[in-house]
Amino acid sequence: xxxxxxxxxxxxIAFVSMEIAVEPEMKCYSGGLGVLAxxxxxxxxxxxxxxxxxxxxxxxxxxxxxxxxxGNQRGESDPWDPxxxxxxxxxxVDLSIEGRAVAVRGWFRQIxxxxxxxVAVLLLDxxxxxxxxEDRALTGRLYGGDxxxxxxxxxxxxxxxxxxxxxxxxxxxxWHLNEGHAALLPLELVHGGASVEAVRQATVFxxxxxxxxxxxxxxxxxxxxVLDPDHLGTLQQVxxxxxxxxxTKLALRLSCYANAVSKRHRDTARALYPGARIRxxxxxxxxxxxxxxxMAALFDASVPGWRVDSSRxxxxxxxxxxHICKAHASARATLIAEVAARTGIxxxxxxxxxxxxxxxxxxxxxxxxxxxxxxxxAIAGRYPLTLLFAGKAHPDxxxxxxxxxxxxxxxxxxxxxxxxxxxADYGLxxxxxxxxxxxxxxxxxxxxxxxxxxxxxKAALNGGLNVSxxxxxxxxxxxxxxxxxxxxxxxxxxxxxxxxxxQLLDDQVLPCWYGDGPRWQRMMRDxxxxxxxxxxxxxxxxxxxxxxYRLGEDRPGIGRQAAIGP
Length: 566
Known about the structure:
Elements: H1 6-9, E1 13-17, H2 32-47, E2 51-56, E3 64-67, E4 73-76, E5 87-97, E6 100-112, E7 118-125, H3 133-136, H4 147-168, E8 174-178, H5 184-191, H6 196-202, E9 203-206, E10 217-219, H7 220-226, H8 229-238, E11 244-246, H9 247-253, E12 257-260, H10 263-272, E13 278-280, H11 287-290, H12 293-302, H13 321-343, E14 353-357, H14 373-382, E15 385-390, H15 398-411, E16 418-423, H16 428-437, E17 440-443, H17 455-461, E18 465-468, H18 474-477, E19 484-486, H19 497-515, H20 517-534, H21 537-548
Parallel strand pairs: 1-2, 1-8, 2-7, 8-9, 9-12, 12-13, 14-15, 14-17, 15-16, 17-18, 18-19
Antiparallel strand pairs: 3-4, 5-6, 6-7, 10-11
Helix pairs in contact: 2-21, 4-5, 5-8, 12-13, 13-16, 13-20, 16-17, 17-20
């Protein structure tokens, strides 16, 4: 492309993330981190924020999931071609990895907002003929390979991003690191000539997980082998006490503003990183993207403007609950049809549909509902129900893969009162169908390991009721018996949550479904009005614009070759 569009040329804020979910067919995402980034890009476009979003092309995707006859996950690469969905950029930049030059190009995708403004998404790609085969593969498999592969990927993300934007003439004033994967970016800015303090003042960092496996750390021998001597020298200047490359600590050291993604996560992160000033910006979801068509039409008629300002959904509290129920019924019928098409299982429309759909890993506890199978069967004998599961396990996560197999094995033992289905290859399209049609959304992490979570917010937009352990965003949004229910108390022993979940279903949730339809409909309406209005991506981006990006300030940009004071 010869000329940059105005909205890219004038961008002053760069949001840098290992993954971004733009379209279902663009496989440069794996789960919550990328889906959130995609929602933020849409909200930024809606609000007209001067932003550019940067990620890796990830040509081989994350995991294309299938389930074999024994219920085990089979995961393969999920390739896609950026040329089908994006436009190539002309500049090519180089960086040094393991002592050799690696060339990087960018691909461009436009996201247009509800008000007509746009933001750009740039995808970094090393699959170029001048690169060695192993370097061409660096923007191949998302979260694939070993620690060496991951560090080299993160070098591409962190070092090539400011170099490419500088070549494009984009003067960035704020760099937003979406998790520690991008922590080499501020190091590159210092390496390029900016003072450490100037880089700090230009950098914003969001940490997304307290789980150790989600925080990248690399030993010094590997770090020395991958990074060039100049970057190593800058790293030792910035963190002289370090005996490993901890990407979260590096990002905290080189940022002026750091935040967790819920209030509970803020407290957890402060305990993990004593002395770090960590604030909170609770995650939010893009209402226009995740609301089913029938529900969106109802919102358009009842609370105009909700697509740009989701707080207007509070006005749904004045609506007749029957209207919410009718709109939800349309999405529910779509879900039932989708399950039949994908699995061959015909769901009983009279039964409540409980859904658990997210990344399959141990701390999220996908098997908690089936922990006591005889008790669950007894409950289903009184209150017949459907349990839907979906989610991918990382190829190197045997615990997550074992959970998928256990769900599949248990499903084969169920009576007619209890229908269980695992739906393979969870992605954006399936997620939208599930959150729109589910009656009850299950969120069951071990507290305080769920930093925020967002799937329950999407379900609430569509009238779904949350059943959640006391963690993440639910501690801020949950209203007991009003928009959902909580499994136990914040001080409950997590080992008791399985029994408490079944007790809650048996004593409150299912009796309400079967015995008090008017109350259930009121709760559906109140879920939209309370959760939908408070947990929009537009609200989160306004928080960032005000507190982190400080858009009211008039400062020059800071790029790779800029050396400015604070």
